[in-house]
Amino acid sequence: MATFLLDRVQRVKIGNEYSHPGYPSGGVPQRTLSGPKCFHVYINDLRTTVPLYKYIDDGTLFEICDRNDVSVIQESVDIAAKWTEQNDMKINSEKSKEIIISFAQDGNFRSTIPNIKIDGRDIAQVCHAKPLGVTISQDLTWIKHVDNIVKKAGKRL
């Protein structure tokens, strides 16, 4: 296992050209059979501190909270960000999204919830998120997901 993780060489291929070799100091090799298992071992202790769903090399943090106490969400994000920093990883704030799922009758309450921040940057609040290819809507309907599938199928016809 050590030879799989240590002293790795990494190159980028564009067309038929390769970049100069790089030597990653941390993380887990991608696109390998053992990579996903190594990633789960690598981030296993994070699961004990924040509610997290993991798949391959992606993670989805979730919180169930009272709408009057949303600070717990930022606290969980801060814990995850600190953990990634301590483990030579980084959360990509550009790719991170926040979706607020609620059945509350007062639809305006979403605008009162402060944006989540990672490294001082606001995370975009979205109406739909697509973890693992399934479109989740903030109202938990399947309308957007089905629309996406129909559009995708239409392109293949």
What characteristics describe this protein?
2 domains; alpha+beta; Reverse transcriptase domain-containing protein; 4 helices; 157 residues
Q: What ranges have pLDDT less than 50 throughout 5 or more consecutive residues?
A: none
What strand order characterises the main sheet? 1-2
Instruction: Give the CA-CA distance, first to last residue.
Output: 46 Å
Count helical runs: 4
- Please indicate the percent range of residues in DSSP E strands (runs of 2 or more): 15-25%
Total beta strands? 10
Largest sheet: 2 strands, antiparallel
The whole-angstrom Rg is 19 Å
Mean pLDDT equals: 80
What's the shape? globular
Protein name: Reverse transcriptase domain-containing protein
How would you sum up this structure, described in words?
This protein has helices at residues 2-5, 35-42, 71-86, 143-156; strands spanning 13-14, 17-18, 52-55, 58-61, 97-99, 117-118, 121-122, 124-126, 128-129, 136-137. It folds into 2 domains: 28-126, no CATH class; 127-157, no CATH class. Strand 1 and strand 2 (17-18) form a beta hairpin. The model has no long low-confidence stretch (mean pLDDT 80). The protein contains 4 helices and 10 strands. A two-stranded antiparallel sheet has the order 1-2. It is globular and about 55 Å long. This is Reverse transcriptase domain-containing protein. It comes from Ridgeia piscesae (Tubeworm).
